[in-house]
Amino acid sequence: MNMFLKRLKSIPAWLNKFFARRFEKIAEINRKYRTPRIAMTPMTRVALLLLRIYLLLLVAILFYKFFTIIMVK
Question: pTM of the prediction?
Answer without folding.
Answer: 0.50
